[in-house]
Amino acid sequence: METNHDHIKLTASELSYLWTSYLADSMAVCVLQYFLVHIDDDDIKTLTAHALDLSKKHVDFVREIYSKERIQIPQGFTEDDVNLLVKRLFSDTFYLRYLRNMSKGGLVTYGRVLQNVYRADIRSFYSECLTDVLDLDSKAATILLEKGLAIRPPFIPYPQKLEFVLKQSFILEGLGRREALTGTEITNLAANIETNHLGSSIAMAFSQVAKSKKVRKFFLRGKEVSLKHTKVLSSYLEMGSLPVPMAYDQEVTDSTEAPFSDKLMMFHFNLMIYAGIGNYGIAISESQRTDLVVDYSRFNMEVLKLSEDGSNLMIENEWLEQPPMAANRSDLAKN
Fold it and tell me: How do the residues of the chain divide into helix, strand and coil, expressed in percent and rounded to 5?
């Protein structure tokens, strides 16, 4: 394996993925440090400490690569963005669900990243990230199961014989609605309901503690969007007499003391919005009912608008760092 990379420049994908990783993991360091102050359950505390160590390792790796390549290191998030002295904002159960959700997001992200990186040290880094987050996800799932907190997708009957689709109404409701959902459609419905529950809880918590009135208003709007989407998605499961994953807004305390800066909370929520857009995209590609596809497509438009408004709010406050970009040849020619 190649060990000297001095003569191999980072590609646009490698440069950008490392930049994004630095921002996300420096944020995670702040968030997980705060979590650890308040966790009582030993199993959850051990898992959170492990996740914190992984994020610190990722930050150190990117910083080292950027320094060697003489690239400007992003500002990211620092100790100025977290206050470890304020009281608890979430329950231990919420922390565990949060870790599981973040690890699931990491599995998707690192799998996509590895498809587009070539330099050996970068591939090795992201391969290790994927292995680490898979281990974190397995441990989180195990603890959820052991504590009776796991929210599993619904069960459906086992197929007993070969059957083939004989009518177009399997896909097109206008020709006669198919009431039964496929297993894949159920899985995506349950997963998107659960992530919206998480988004709703975080939006509610952040709205309680944000200092800026505009930021508080943005989080309240985000909560409304999450609740609206959850209601529509839940209706599909309810019509099929299937259980709906429960919400966990009750896992948020009544604290109004801000553990994080408004900048960090805006970045965190926008990161969740981007993940939600990806989740809806996957659900569209795996749904065979046009009414589901229409609803997911509409949700994506609503979330994209929310994301745009969030980005504009961050730009207004000079919180949005500019990512690595290609050279503007027109400007270079003018100069």
Answer: 70, 0, 30
| CA 245/CA 184 separation, integer angstroms | 16
- Is-contact 96 45, C-beta < 8 A? no
Q: What is the dihedral of CA 109, 110, 112, 113, to 10 degrees?
A: 110
Contacts of 231 (CB under 8 A, 6+ apart): none
What Rg, from alpha-carbon coordinates, does the chain have? 22
> Which of helix, strand or coil describes residue 260?
strand
Angstrom CA distances, 184 to 91, 155, 286, stand at: 31, 12, 7
* Tens of pLDDT, residues 71-117: 999 999 999 999 999 999 999 999 999 999 999 999 999 999 999 99
CA atoms within 13 A on the CB side of 103: 23
The residue to which tokens 């399997």 are assigned: 170
**What is the tens place of the pLDDT at every residue in 226-282?**
999 999 999 999 998 999 998 888 999 999 999 999 999 999 999 999 999 999 999
SS3 164: coil
Closest CA to 154 of 272, 248, 239: 239
Q: Is 202 left (phi over 0), alpha (psi -120 to 50) or beta?
A: alpha
Summary mean pLDDT of the chain: 91
Q: How far is CA 194 from the centre of its chain?
A: 12
Express each pLDDT in 312-329 by its tens digit. Answer: 999 999 999 998 887 776
Structure tokens at 290: 């046009």
Dist. CA 318–CA 320, nearest whole Å: 6
DSSP 82: B
* Residue 60: HSE in the Cβ half-sphere, 13 Å Cα cutoff: 6
End-to-end CA distance of the chain: 43
Tokens coding 81: 């963005």
